């Protein structure tokens, strides 16, 4: 008779390797999407704050269009929908590669960037306009003033909301399961159907999500201690 | 050094500067005074184009400040500007505030910029605070750092927009002394200020503005002893004796 709760099966061997591979895929999705989403979010925030009306509106349209559609729909769109619009040669080139992960990264990046851009924008708006003016008066360009003076201050203010967006991103990678990306939830389901050990498989997956989330939160705490918000 | 020719500026329908024509010679110290809303801050902010103008011309060192071909960033980097609210960058140290622009815009090596900045901080009496953050300084200290930060670009011209108006009274003196020393070293300066003692002792010329117009311009002796325009006479008597019974 098998024990009621048996983790041994998952701590070594094939099933263990499946789960670890899933974890690595989930971490990669998070890392790559975050690395792309954060710069994109800053660009969108700057576009929305630029003095040019057309840019403001296009930034606004992007954010509203992206964040008012569920992430699941984004995933399915980039996996099933968008490739239909591509020329055949390009589509076949994509299908020969990892189209699942690529679609997931595009969906996660755009979705996360839309949310993060709003946080970055309110962070920038919280920095007094005189800071920007003082930088311009010294002779810095618009971009240099933003990069050297406004953004470093704005990002420190923005860290708490950005952390919670990063936590969302980490957990949202699980939705990539629906388009067949072999991330943590996908692998947990695979182990479950191979072993009928539902509780253990899901417990391990949950522990991974929880543990990683706590690490992200801890890193944020370290960052805030190292680069505190300072006001004059 | 500065020629201002028939400058007009409107905020919407409000006529903030009315046909202002002035000039400032190299090495000259000009104080601009006048009641709130008279246009004196607006005027000084048009000089380095923090504010646009609608007509007229401002030429500084041969450069048409509001012309279409001016290289605005390079132009501004040759004009030191000191704000009422100091506007130091709070996320970096006092020293970094003074080295940021020289390293990025003058192309100095970090070690050169550091040495120059420390010399300037010493000049304003704050070398010991180089590693502090702006938030750890008093208002007077912050404003002295702001002057050092502006000087670090080695500008031939310094503009001061009410540099002591946001300070507690006991800190006004330390900032004015730094400005006086700067004037004695031959810096060309335009100062918007309510400090009449400073105007009397340091200025070569004092301008009086009201309702967007320069109503009077004179050497400080004349300006205070024999004011001509009735509005200036009233202004001077108001600031001298706010409590006539006590005087």
Could you give a short description of this structure?
The complex is a heterodimer of chains A (232) and B (247). Chain A has 232 residues and is mainly α.
**Largest sheet, strands/sense/barrel of chain B:** 6 strands, mixed
**Assembly form of the protein:** heterodimer
Order of strands in the sheet with most strands of chain B: 6-7-8-3-9-10
Number of structurally distinct domains of chain A: 1
Radius of gyration of chain A: 21 Å
Overall geometry of chain B: globular
H/E topology pattern of chain B = EEEHEEHEHHHEHEHEEHH
Structural write-up:
The complex is a heterodimer of chains A (about 230) and B (about 250). Chain A has a single domain (about 15-225), classed as MetI-like fold (Orthogonal Bundle), CATH 1.10.3720.10. Chain A is an all-alpha fold and about 230 residues long. In chain A, α2 (about 15-50) packs antiparallel against α9 and α3 crosses α6. Helices cover about 80% and strands about 0% of the residues of chain A. Chain A has helices spanning about 10, 15-50, 55-65, 70-80, 90-95, 100-125, 130-140, 140-170, 185-195, 200-225. The mean pLDDT of chain A is about 90. Chain A contains ten helices and no strands. With about 250 residues, chain B is an alpha/beta fold. Chain B has helices at about 40-45, 70-75, 95-105, 110-125, 140-150, 170-185, 195-200, 220-225, 230-240; strands spanning about 1-10, 15-25, 30-35, 55-60, 65, 80, 155-160, 190, 205-210, 215-220. In chain B, the strands form two sheets. Chain B has a six-stranded mixed β-sheet, with helices on both faces. In chain B, α3 crosses α4 (about 110-125). The mean pLDDT of chain B is about 90. The interface between A and B is medium-sized, with 21 and 29 residues.
């Amino acid at each position: 008779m098998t024990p009621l709760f048996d983790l041994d099966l998952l701590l070594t061997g094939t099933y263990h390797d499946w789960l670890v591979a899933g974890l690595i895929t989930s971490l990669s999705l998070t890392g790559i999407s975050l690395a792309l989403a954060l710069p994109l979010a800053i660009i969108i925030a700057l576009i929305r704050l630029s003095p040019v009306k057309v840019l403001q509106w296009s930034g606004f349209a992007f954010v509203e269009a992206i964040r008012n559609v569920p992430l699941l729909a984004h995933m399915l769109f980039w996996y099933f929908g968008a490739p239909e619009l591509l020329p055949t040669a390009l589509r076949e080139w994509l299908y020969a590669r990892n189209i699942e992960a690529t679609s997931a990264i595009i969906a996660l990046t755009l979705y996360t960037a839309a949310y993060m851009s709003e946080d970055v924008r309110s962070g920038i708006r919280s920095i007094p306009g005189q800071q920007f003016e003082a930088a311009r008066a010294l002779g810095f360009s618009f971009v240099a003033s933003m990069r050297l003076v406004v953004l470093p201050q704005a990002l420190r203010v923005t860290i708490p909301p950005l952390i919670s967006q990063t936590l969302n991103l980490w957990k949202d990678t699980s939705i990539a399961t629906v388009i067949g990306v072999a991330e943590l939830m996908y692998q947990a389901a695979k182990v479950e159907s191979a072993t009928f050990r539902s509780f253990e498989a899901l417990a391990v997956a949950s522990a991974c999500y929880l543990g990683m989330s706590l690490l992200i939160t801890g890193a944020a705490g370290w960052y805030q201690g190292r680069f505190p918000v300072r006001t004059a | 050094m500065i020629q201002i020719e028939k400058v007009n500026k409107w905020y919407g329908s409000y006529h903030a500067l009315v046909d202002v024509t002035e000039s400032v010679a190299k090495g000259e110290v000009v104080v601009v005074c006048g009641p709130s809303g008279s246009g004196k801050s607006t005027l000084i902010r048009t000089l380095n184009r923090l504010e646009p103008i609608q007509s007229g011309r401002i030429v500084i060192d041969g450069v048409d400040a509001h012309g279409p071909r001016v290289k605005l960033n390079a132009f501004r980097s040759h004009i030191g500007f000191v704000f009422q609210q100091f506007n130091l960058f709070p996320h970096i140290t006092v020293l970094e505030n003074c080295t940021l622009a020289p390293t990025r815009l003058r192309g100095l090596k970090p070690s050169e910029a550091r040495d120059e900045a420390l010399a300037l901080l010493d000049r304003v009496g704050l070398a010991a605070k180089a590693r502090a953050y702006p938030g750890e300084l008093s208002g007077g200290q912050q404003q002295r750092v702001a002057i050092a930060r502006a000087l670090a670009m080695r500008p031939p011209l310094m503009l001061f927009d009410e540099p002591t108006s946001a300070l507690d009274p006991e800190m006004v003196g330390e900032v004015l002394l730094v400005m006086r020393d700067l004037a004695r070293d031959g810096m060309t300066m335009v100062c918007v200020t309510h400090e009449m003692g400073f105007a009397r002792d340091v200025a070569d010329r004092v301008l009086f503005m009201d309702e967007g117009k320069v109503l009077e311009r004179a050497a400080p002796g004349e300006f205070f002893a024999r004011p001509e325009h009735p509005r200036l006479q009233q202004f001077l008597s108001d600031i001298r004796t706010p409590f006539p019974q006590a005087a």
